[in-house]
C-alpha cells in the first residue's frame, strides 16, 4: 500500500503492508500498521533544465517500522531533532499512511501555520467551499467556530432558508439541490483520496466505490442542471418537502442548548489557558502569535476527535497554563472513550502525563510502557546487566578455548582420540550454542523454542545497547575578572514604559522597588506568570532598557550573554532577509577576526552544527532547535561571565535540554534563568538530580553557590524560601480552583 502527499517541492511517500483478512469494524482510535516506510523527497523545482531536472533528494524517515497505538492511551513521541517526528505526525494527521481509515477524526496542533489550515471534521483537507474570512470574530467565536464547523451548518441553513423564502415556485427545490451538490462534491473528494491511498484488494474495492460515486455525482449533475420547465409537478412537491425536512434537521444541530454547552466548555478551556473574559471578546486579528497559539490549542481541545496530536503545546504557556493543561489531559484520559493522544514536548514534567513512550530512532519505532525516567533507568540497568553477562561469557569462552587447544595438542601428541573428540565437542558447543542464555522474555533460553527460525544453528550474540552520540553542549571557561564585586546589581529599580504623548497620563509601573544582585557562580531563577514583568526585568539586567528610577550597576569587566525568548524568530527574520546567509558566515561577520575559520567551525560543531551544516545550509532552512544552538554559539564565543537565559529550552528536544541542564550545572559563571520548564529550573538553579543515572550525578557540584529563586508578580519581586517547589504548590492550588469552578 502506497500513498503520497506533496507540499511545494516536498513529497511525503508512505508505504505499508496490508492484510487480506476482513478485520471488521475498525476502531478509529487505534492504529496497527506493519511494515511502515516513510520518506520525504525534495523534487526538482520548476524551471530546472538539463540533467538536474527530475532529480530527487530522498530522505528516509522510517524503514519497515511498526506503528501500533492502543485506543485511549497517551503516547509521548520522543526523538532527536531531525529524526522525523514532524513528518510522522503530518503523515498520521493527513492520513497519508494507507492503514488509517478515512473516517478517523484526527486533530493536529503544530507550531507553524496554526491559523491557516482549512480542514473538515475528520481532519482531511477539503478545498471547496472555502469559508469566509472571520476577521471580525472574537476569540471565543473563533474557537467555537473552528471546533464545531458551525459555519458549514449555518451556511446550509442560510441557503435553504433563502430558498424557502423565495418567491419562485422552484426556490426550495433549487436550494436543496445546491446543498446536495456541495455535499456530493465533498464526498467525491474523500472517496478519490481514499482510492489513491490504497492498493491491492482494498485498493481495488476503494476504486470500485469511487467509480460508483463518480456515476452518482454525474447522474445528480444532470438533475442539478435540469431546467424548471422539465421538472414534473410530483418531483417538485417531493423535493420541496425534502428541503423542509433538511432545514429542520440542520436547525436541530445549532439549537441554543447544544451551542450553550459547547460555549461553556470553550470558556472553561480558554480560562484554563490564561484568557480573561475581556480577552475572550477581543477580535482574533488583534492577538499576538503566542495568544494565537493558545487559541489554536483551545480549538484542538474542544473538538471531538479520535486521535489528538499536540506538538509542543506548552511553548507559549506559563506554568499555570502548563499545569492546567496537564491536569486537563489527564482528566480527559480518565473519561469515557478518550481520544488517543500523541504528544511532543521538551518539558519532562509535562510529559509525565503520558503512559507510554513512542521512540523514533534509527528509522524505526519502539515502545516503552512508562515515563522517560523509567525508560532511561531501564536502559541503563539493561546495559549494566548485559555488560556483566558478556564479560562473564567472554571469560568463560576464553577458558574453554584454552582447554580445547590444550586437549587437541595433548590428544594429537599422545594419539588420544577421546581427548580429540572431547575438544571437537566443546568446539561445536562454542560454534552452535554459544551466546545469550536468556530468552527475550527473560526466561531460560531453549534451542527449539527461542531460535528465530529453523535455518539458524546458533544463538544470538550478546548485544550491549549502544548509546547514541551524546548531545554536545560545551560551555567555555570564563575569563578572569581581576577584582571582586557583583557582576550585576539592581537597587530600588522601578520601570514604566514611556507614554506615547507627553500630555497623556503616565503608564503604570511595570516593575517597582526591585533589588537584585548577581555574583560569580550564582544561580538565580525568576518565576512568574506571563505579563508579570519577567522579560522587562531581564532587559534591564542586560542593558536593553533603562530604569525609570533606581540604579543598575555592572562590573567594569563584565561580559554577559543574553538569550532572548524571541531569539529564534529574530534569526528566522535574518534568514529571510539574507536567503544565503549561513551560520558560519554570520559568526565570521560578528567575531570580526577574533577567531579564525577553524576555531569557528570547532565552536559551531561543539554546539551541534558541524561541517556543511554550518557552512552550506542557509539559516532560513535550520530547524528551531538548530537555531537555538546557533544563538547560544553567538553568545558563548566571547566567554561570558554571566548567562541570562529567557525561555532558552523552547524548540529543543528533550535530550538537548538535558545536555544544556548538565552543562550549566557546574559551569563557573553566573546563570540567571527565566523558564516555565520546572525540570530544567530544578536542575540549573536548585542543582537537584532526580535520576541516579544522569550524568549530573557523576559530576557533583563542589562549588559553594548562592542559589536563589524569586517570584515576580504585578511588578514586585519576592524571595521564595521554598524554592521553585513553593511556586509550583501555589500554582497547583490555583489549578484546582480553575478545574473545580
Automatic annotation (TrEMBL):
<feature type="coiled-coil region">
    <location>
        <begin position="375"/>
        <end position="406"/>
    </location>
</feature>
<dbReference type="InterPro" id="IPR003439">
    <property type="entry name" value="ABC_transporter-like_ATP-bd"/>
</dbReference>
<dbReference type="InterPro" id="IPR050611">
    <property type="entry name" value="ABCF"/>
</dbReference>
<dbReference type="GO" id="GO:0016887">
    <property type="term" value="F:ATP hydrolysis activity"/>
</dbReference>
<dbReference type="GO" id="GO:0005524">
    <property type="term" value="F:ATP binding"/>
</dbReference>
<dbReference type="InterPro" id="IPR003593">
    <property type="entry name" value="AAA+_ATPase"/>
</dbReference>
<keyword id="KW-0677">Repeat</keyword>
<dbReference type="InterPro" id="IPR032781">
    <property type="entry name" value="ABC_tran_Xtn"/>
</dbReference>
<dbReference type="Pfam" id="PF12848">
    <property type="entry name" value="ABC_tran_Xtn"/>
</dbReference>
<keyword id="KW-0175">Coiled coil</keyword>
<dbReference type="Pfam" id="PF00005">
    <property type="entry name" value="ABC_tran"/>
</dbReference>
<feature type="domain" description="ABC transporter">
    <location>
        <begin position="495"/>
        <end position="739"/>
    </location>
</feature>
<feature type="domain" description="ABC transporter">
    <location>
        <begin position="33"/>
        <end position="388"/>
    </location>
</feature>
<keyword id="KW-0067">ATP-binding</keyword>
<keyword id="KW-0547">Nucleotide-binding</keyword>
<protein>
    <submittedName>
        <fullName>ABC transporter</fullName>
    </submittedName>
</protein>
<dbReference type="InterPro" id="IPR027417">
    <property type="entry name" value="P-loop_NTPase"/>
</dbReference>
Amino acid at each position: 500500500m502506497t500513498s503520497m502527499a506533496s507540499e511545494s517541492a516536498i513529497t511525503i511517500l508512505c508505504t505499508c503492508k496490508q492484510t487480506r483478512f476482513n478485520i471488521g469494524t475498525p476502531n478509529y482510535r487505534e492504529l496497527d500498521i506493519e511494515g511502515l516506510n516513510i520518506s520525504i523527497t525534495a523534487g526538482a523545482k520548476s524551471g530546472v533544465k538539463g540533467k538536474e531536472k527530475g532529480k530527487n533528494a530522498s530522505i528516509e524517515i522510517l524503514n519497515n517500522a511498526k506503528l501500533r497505538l492502543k485506543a485511549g492511551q497517551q503516547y509521548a513521541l520522543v526523538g532527536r531533532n531531525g529524526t522525523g517526528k514532524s513528518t510522522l505526525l503530518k503523515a498520521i494527521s493527513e492520513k497519508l499512511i494507507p492503514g488509517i481509515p478515512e473516517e478517523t477524526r484526527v486533530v493536529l496542533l503544530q507550531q507553524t501555520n496554526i491559523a491557516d489550515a482549512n480542514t473538515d471534521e475528520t481532519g482531511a483537507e477539503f478545498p471547496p467551499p472555502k469559508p469566509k474570512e472571520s476577521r471580525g470574530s472574537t476569540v471565543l467565536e473563533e474557537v467555537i467556530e473552528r471546533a464545531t464547523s458551525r459555519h458549514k451548518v449555518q451556511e446550509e441553513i442560510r441557503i435553504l432558508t433563502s430558498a424557502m423564502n423565495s418567491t419562485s415556485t422552484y426556490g426550495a427545490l433549487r436550494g436543496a439541490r445546491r446543498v446536495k451538490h456541495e455535499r456530493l462534491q465533498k464526498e467525491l473528494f474523500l472517496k478519490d483520496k481514499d482510492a489513491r491511498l490504497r492498493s491491492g484488494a482494498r485498493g481495488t474495492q476503494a476504486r470500485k466505490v469511487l467509480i460508483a460515486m463518480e456515476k452518482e455525482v454525474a447522474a445528480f449533475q444532470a438533475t442539478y442542471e435540469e431546467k424548471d420547465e422539465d421538472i414534473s409537478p410530483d418531483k417538485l412537491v417531493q423535493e420541496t418537502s425534502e428541503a423542509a425536512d433538511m432545514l429542520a434537521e440542520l436547525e436541530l444541530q445549532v439549537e441554543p442548548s447544544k451551542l450553550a454547552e459547547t460555549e461553556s466548555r470553550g470558556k472553561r478551556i480558554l480560562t484554563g489557558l490564561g484568557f480573561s473574559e475581556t480577552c475572550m471578546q477581543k477580535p482574533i486579528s488583534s492577538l499576538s502569535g503566542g495568544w494565537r497559539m493558545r487559541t489554536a490549542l483551545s480549538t484542538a481541545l474542544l473538538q471531538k476527535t479520535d486521535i489528538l496530536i499536540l506538538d509542543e503545546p506548552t511553548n507559549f504557556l506559563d506554568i499555570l497554563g502548563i499545569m492546567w493543561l496537564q491536569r486537563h489531559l489527564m482528566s480527559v484520559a480518565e473519561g469515557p472513550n478518550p481520544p488517543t493522544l500523541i504528544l511532543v514536548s521538551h518539558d519532562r514534567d509535562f510529559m509525565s502525563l503520558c503512559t507510554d513512550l513512542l521512540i523514533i530512532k534509527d528509522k524505526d519505532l519502539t515502545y516503552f510502557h512508562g515515563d522517560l525516567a523509567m525508560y532511561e533507568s531501564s536502559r541503563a540497568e539493561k546495559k549494566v546487566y548485559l555488560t556483566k553477562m558478556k564479560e562473564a561469557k567472554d571469560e568463560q569462552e576464553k577458558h574453554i578455548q584454552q582447554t580445547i587447544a590444550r586437549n587437541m595438542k595433548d590428544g594429537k601428541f599422545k594419539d588420544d582420540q577421546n581427548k580429540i573428540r572431547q575438544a571437537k565437542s566443546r568446539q561445536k558447543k562454542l560454534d552452535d550454542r554459544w551466546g545469550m542464555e536468556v530468552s527475550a522474555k527473560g526466561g531460560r533460553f531453549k534451542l527449539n523454542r527461542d531460535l528465530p527460525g529453523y535455518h539458524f544453528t546458533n544463538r544470538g550474540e550478546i548485544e550491549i545497547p549502544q548509546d547514541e552520540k551524546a548531545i554536545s553542549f560545551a560551555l567555555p571557561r570564563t575569563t578572569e575578572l581581576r577584582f571582586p564585586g557583583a557582576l550585576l546589581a539592581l537597587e530600588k529599580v522601578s520601570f514604566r514604559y514611556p507614554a506615547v504623548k507627553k500630555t497623556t497620563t503616565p503608564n503604570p509601573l511595570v516593575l517597582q522597588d526591585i533589588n537584585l544582585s548577581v555574583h560569580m557562580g550564582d544561580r538565580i531563577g525568576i518565576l512568574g506568570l506571563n505579563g508579570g514583568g519577567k522579560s522587562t526585568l531581564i532587559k534591564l539586567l542586560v542593558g536593553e532598557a533603562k530604569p525609570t528610577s533606581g540604579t543598575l550597576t555592572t562590573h567594569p569587566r563584565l561580559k554577559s550573554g543574553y538569550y532572548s525568548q524571541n531569539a529564534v524568530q529574530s534569526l528566522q527574520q535574518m534568514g529571510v532577509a539574507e536567503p544565503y546567509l549561513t551560520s558560519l558566515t554570520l559568526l565570521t561577520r560578528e567575531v570580526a577576526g577574533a577567531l579564525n575559520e577553524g576555531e569557528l567551525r570547532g565552536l559551531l560543531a561543539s554546539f551541534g552544527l558541524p561541517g556543511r551544516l554550518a557552512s552550506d545550509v542557509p539559516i532560513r532552512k535550520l530547524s528551531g532547535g538548530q537555531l537555538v544552538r546557533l544563538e547560544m554559539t553567538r553568545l558563548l564565543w566571547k566567554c561570558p561571565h554571566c548567562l541570562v537565559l529567557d525561555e532558552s529550552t523552547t524548540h529543543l528536544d528533550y535530550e538537548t535540554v538535558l545536555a544544556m541542564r548538565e552543562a550549566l550545572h557546574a559551569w563557573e559563571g553566573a546563570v540567571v534563568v527565566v523558564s516555565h520548564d520546572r525540570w530544567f529550573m530544578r536542575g540549573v538553579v536548585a542543582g537537584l538530580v532526580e535520576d541516579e543515572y544522569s550524568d549530573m550525578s557523576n559530576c557533583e557540584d563542589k562549588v559553594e553557590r548562592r542559589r536563589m529563586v524569586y517570584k515576580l508578580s504585578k511588578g514586585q519581586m519576592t524571595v521564595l524560601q521554598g524554592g521553585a517547589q513553593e511556586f509550583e504548590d501555589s500554582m497547583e492550588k490555583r489549578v484546582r480552583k480553575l478545574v473545580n469552578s
